[in-house]
Structure formats: C-alpha cells, structure tokens
Write the structure tokens for this entry.
Amino acid sequence: MGRRLSSDLLARGHRVRGLARPASKGRVVPGCEAITGNALDGASYRESVAGCDTLVHLLGVAHPSPAKAAEFRSIDLSSAREAIQAALHANAGHFVYVSVAHPAPVMHAYIAARMEAEAAIHESGLNATILRPWYVLGPGHRWPYVLKPFYWMLELLPSTREGARRLGLVTLSQMVRALVFTVEHPAEGVRVRGVPEIRRSL
C-alpha cells in the first residue's frame, strides 16, 4: 500500500518521504526520498518529519491473525504511538492513520490495539484522519473475493445491512484513492471514515 500511495502522490506533484530500515532503503519507489529510521523509535526519524504537511502511518504486522496478539501491541500500537509523538514534535499539520472497522466478531486483539492507537490520536490534539477498512483486497489477498456474493446478500437484509457495510471488503485501489484524498484534504480536528466512505473514495 505504501508503494502505491507514494507513486500516486508523486504523480500528482507531491514531495514524498518514506521511512525505511537501512536494508530496505533501496525499495522505496523512484522519486521518493528514503528516510532511514526505526518505526518503533520515533526519535530516529522525527527530525525528517519537520516541514511535512502530513504524516501517514501504514505500518502493521503482515497477515494479521489471532495468534499475533502480542505483535499487534509491540509493533502496530507501538509504532503508531511513536509516529504520533514524531508528528507532534515536528508540528505536522495532519496525521493519517489506517485503523480497522469495529466492532467485529473476530480479531479482538488486533481491533483493541488499533482502538488504543485511535484513542492516542484523539488525546494528542493532532488534526487527523482515521480510516477504518475491514479487509483490503489486493495482491496476495484475493481469496475473500469468494465472499462477495455473501456480502451482497447480507447488505440486502435490513437486520444485517449495517454490519455488512461496515465490515465490507475494499480494494487496494479504493484504499489508495481514499488515502490520496485525505492527504490532499486535511482534516480539522479528528475525522473517522469507514468502509462506505472508502469505497466512495471519501
């Protein structure tokens, strides 16, 4: 998602800086300024946030599952807290955070970590946009396409419509378009957008 977002922002004339570990510095997209640092240590990159209009946090454990509860806190939540502090230190005008749709009947530890990060954003006083997708369809994440007829049926029924829409599937393209929109239309205060808005690209 970060590479797609970087490419689209660069194509639209934005200057983009991307945080990368030393070993991954060469993987940022051409035209993106690679910033070497540790996502779990905001002090390692916060000076590079200075002068930026928006800080976008996209870090998370790959392939989330209930077995990774400890990692959701040590990586997802910790990196979000560090990014929030880096944005405050650099006086960034806008913070963008990809959270998760909730409530939901599964992935309780993952949702709890993301909700704590959302609370930290609210407490920080930052202008921020929080996006709440449920599952993003893209390369390596296509199997849920088989569920689309099931979702369609649930959205037709009044008793399940709200939940089906809130926990609906979004495509990678929809997600990136929504992120581009949030970068180009900063929030005043904290705004939260869910699956229906992401599908409409806000």
